[in-house]
Design brief:
Blueprint: E1 6-7, H1 13-22, E2 33-34, E3 52-57, E4 63-67, E5 76-80, E6 84-89, E7 92-99, E8 112-117, H2 121-124, E9 126-132, E10 138-146, E11 149-161, E12 173-175, E13 181-185, E14 207-211, E15 243-245, E16 253-256, E17 263-267, E18 274-279, E19 294-295, E20 298-299, E21 316-318, E22 326-331, E23 344-348, E24 353-359, E25 365-372, E26 377-382, E27 388-392, E28 396-401
Antiparallel strand pairs: 1-3, 2-21, 3-28, 4-5, 5-6, 6-7, 8-9, 9-10, 10-11, 12-13, 13-14, 14-15, 16-17, 17-18, 18-21, 19-20, 22-23, 23-24, 24-25, 26-27, 27-28
Length: 403
């Protein structure tokens, strides 16, 4: 087995800034702004420790995601843009778990973009994959696994969505605490949302959907999935009933807090502002996060008047001095790094910075810069024990460990 390599980060933000200055960076990076703080439970402690990053494995081809299966097997599953899902055990890549390389398009922001394991995967062997096929269409499909591999011939296509352009495919999928599948799609691409999809309830583009892909209730005659009765736009003639939230440009990575059920969304910005959106666990859905009338909390286009509407502001936004492409992360619920308990970690794909939303001693919420890495942070990931990982698009997966 390859010996783990540690990539040590700096413990304090002040030390980090000193290191940046030593490398010729004269200006301090702009800190993201907490827009609408949400206070974690009172027993949470503030961050007192910045983790190190332990190399799990490298040599992947454009990795985009890592996850456990929720079956207590200890396995990790690494998703490559090119269409492979690899099983990793004991720090070694063991085999291809699922191979969709023959059907996946890898142009621009297309590819195999996400997988999600059924909450009962150990019993039913069901997993769902999100990918872009050769004609540019976004595809959501269900597969069955048997033993150590998933059978590509077991594919059942659940949903397809035509994409007018090759970017902003979104593609994140995750099962929520309600066992429904949440599926995010970008606004259709190009720049500035030229088709106005973000504010158009008649399309699934620019939304996060909520789908019943496991149970028998409320199945539509024309689709192999159900629409939950309490989805916010069910029964409206002007809206797609699958929609759970809208006004999103490219919700590339989102996650549920495994303890509270809150939903955290990293929505990639246009040209000025990146944002993290927040939906509390008790939400009834239907939030409008503003795109393409707003970019973060700012009017879009920038010279437009401030738009009025029932918009939900991001919890955090940052400008191009801090980063250029947000990657949403996870609330840490593992045990290896007690100082990070209850904090939400997220990063930037281009600049490699990692931040956390943390609760301070006086009970308020602040944003803190944890690390300046060299990673192209395409994703964070969570294993069966709640430990967190960082995926470097250049080819590696790292585990967060105590300093």
């Amino acid at each position: 087995m390859r010996a783990p390599r540690l990539v040590t980060t700096l413990v304090l933000v002040t030390a980090l800034l000193g290191a940046l200055a030593a490398h010729g960076c004269d200006a301090e990076p702009t800190e993201p702004v907490v827009v609408d703080p949400v206070t974690p439970p009172a027993e949470e402690e503030p961050v007192s420790l910045v983790p190190s990053f332990e190399l799990v494995l490298d040599g992947f081809d454009q990795p985009l995601f890592v996850t456990g299966a929720g079956d207590d097997s200890g396995r990790l599953f690494v998703v490559e843009k090119t269409g492979h899902v690899w099983t990793v055990e004991g720090g070694e890549r063991t085999e291809v778990f699922l191979d969709l390389s023959e059907v996946v398009s890898t142009e621009s922001e297309q590819g195999l973009l996400g997988i999600a394991f059924s909450p009962s995967f150990a019993e039913d062997g069901v997993l769902v994959a999100s990918y872009t096929r050769a004609d540019g269409t976004s595809v959501l499909s269900r597969f069955l696994a048997s033993g150590d591999t998933a059978d590509p011939t077991s594919e059942q296509v659940l949903l397809t969505q035509a994409q007018p352009f090759k970017n902003h495919n979104g593609g994140m999928i995750a099962f929520g605490p309600d066992d429904y599948l949440y599926y995010g799609l970008g606004d259709g691409g190009s720049g500035g949302d030229p088709q106005g999809n973000g504010q158009n309830l008649s399309t699934l583009l620019g939304t996060i959907m909520r789908l019943d892909v496991l149970r028998d209730g409320n199945m539509l005659a024309t689709t192999p999935y159900g629409i939950p009765d309490d989805n916010p736009f069910v029964g409206r003639s002007d809206a797609q009933p699958e929609i759970w939230a809208r006004g999103l440009r490219n919700p590339w990575r989102f996650s549920f807090d495994s303890q509270t059920g809150d939903l955290w969304i990293g929505d990639v910005g246009q040209s000025a502002w990146e944002e993290i959106d927040f939906q509390p666990a008790d939400s009834a859905g239907g939030e409008n996060y503003g795109w393409n009338l707003l970019e973060g909390t700012h009017p879009y286009p920038p010279d437009a008047a401030m738009r009025e509407g029932d918009f939900t502001a991001p919890i955090v936004e940052y400008d191009r001095d801090a980063g250029k492409s947000v990657t949403g992360g996870y609330v840490y619920r593992g045990t290896a790094i007690p100082g990070l308990a209850g904090t939400y970690l997220y990063g930037d794909f281009v600049d490699g910075r990692i931040w956390a939303l943390v609760r301070t001693e006086d009970g308020t919420v602040e944003n803190r810069l944890l690390a300046q890495t060299h990673f192209q942070i395409s994703s964070f990931g969570e294993d069966d024990m709640g430990e967190l990982y960082v995926v470097d698009f250049a080819g590696a997966v790292y585990r967060l460990v105590a300093e």
